[in-house]
């Protein structure tokens, strides 16, 4: 049965305590956000993945604050029930805590977001503390953090060796202590995600992190089979929308070329 009451940060944290799984997806525009919200998603993320699946960039790095604010405004018009979180883009929170606070505040004041997401562990803990102290809910993001893709050198699974796994476990506790209300765990071994999930009192939201996380998130365009550039192993594709859409566009093109569209019934 679909829940009716508006999702809040405390409700999300409570879902971990009660063992109810948290369903999350990304959105970048009003139409998709409306459909996700009507379908009963608990959390909608305006991901900086929009740089890739919406804008066609190769990484998430180029997307700007202004572009993310615009996407957040569009999405917020379609969201009635889900918790709406906006991704802070590369360099919007790393330069100084003041800049991070100003930018995070813009997502709430101008974008209509109810919180922000920030990538990274110990190095961003003080920033998360500052934001949460000022009333801005923050979601952490550990593991394969796409804004660091140039440092990682590729999209391989993170935390496979014991050294990196230890850092991730430590980082999760640091983010919780800093006041984060949830943590995205991206592309790490399922057993490591399970250990982290059991070690913190805030929800973990997995993407390529196995089934033991408190919730799951995917990029909506991946789930729909709309983004065909690459298909990560962790994606479950529920439909093949790119095929369906290409077919519709090509039939329309044929109809126009053959003069069968518009028909008499479609004319005035
Ligand atoms: O940018 C994004 O969409 C994300 C999620 C996939 C977690 O960070």
Short description:
Helices cover 41% and strands 13% of the residues. It is an alpha/beta fold. The chain folds into two domains: 9-237, Alpha-Beta Barrel (TIM Barrel), CATH 3.20.20.60; 241-268.
Verbal overview:
- The chain has 268 residues and is of the alpha/beta class.
- The protein folds into two domains: 9-237, TIM Barrel; 241-268.
- It is built from eleven helices and eight strands.
- It has helices at 9-18, 30-39, 50-53, 65-76, 97-109, 125-133, 149-152, 162-178, 190-199, 220-223, 241-258; strands at 22-26, 43-46, 83-87, 115-117, 138-143, 182-186, 204-207, 215-218.
- It has an eight-stranded parallel barrel with strand order 1-2-3-4-5-6-7-8, surrounded by seven helices.
- α2 packs across α4 (65-76) and α6 packs parallel to α8.
- The radius of gyration is 20 Å and the shape is globular.
- The structure holds 3-methyl-2-oxobutanoic acid.
């Amino acid at each position: 049965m679909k829940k009716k009451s508006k999702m809040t940060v405390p409700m999300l944290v409570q879902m971990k305590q009660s063992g109810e799984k948290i369903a999350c997806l990304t959105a970048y525009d009003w139409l998709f956000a409306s459909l996700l919200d009507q379908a009963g998603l608990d959390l909608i993320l305006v991901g900086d993945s929009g740089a890739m699946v919406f804008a066609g960039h190769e990484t998430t790095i180029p997307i700007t604050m202004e572009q993310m604010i615009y996407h957040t405004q569009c999405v917020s018009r379609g969201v009635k029930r889900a918790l709406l979180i906006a991704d802070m883009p590369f360099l919007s929170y790393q330069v100084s805590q003041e800049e991070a606070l100003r930018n995070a505040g813009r997502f709430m004041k101008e974008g209509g977001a109810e919180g922000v997401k920030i990538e990274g562990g110990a190095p961003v803990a003080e920033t998360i503390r500052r934001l949460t102290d000022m009333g801005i809910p923050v979601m952490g993001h550990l593991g394969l953090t796409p804004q660091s893709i140039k440092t990682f050198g590729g999209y391989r699974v993170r935390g496979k060796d014991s050294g990196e796994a230890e850092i991730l476990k430590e980082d999760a506790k640091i983010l919780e202590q800093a006041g984060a209300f949830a943590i995205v765990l991206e592309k790490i071994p399922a057993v490591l995600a399970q250990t982290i999930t059991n070690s913190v009192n805030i929800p973990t939201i997995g993407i390529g992190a196995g089934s033991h996380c408190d919730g799951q998130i995917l990029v909506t365009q991946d789930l729909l089979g709309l983004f065909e550039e690459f298909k990560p192993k962790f994606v479950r594709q529920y439909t093949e929308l790119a095929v369906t859409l290409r077919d519709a566009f090509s039939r329309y093109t044929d109809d126009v070329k053959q003069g069968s569209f518009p028909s008499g019934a479609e004319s005035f």
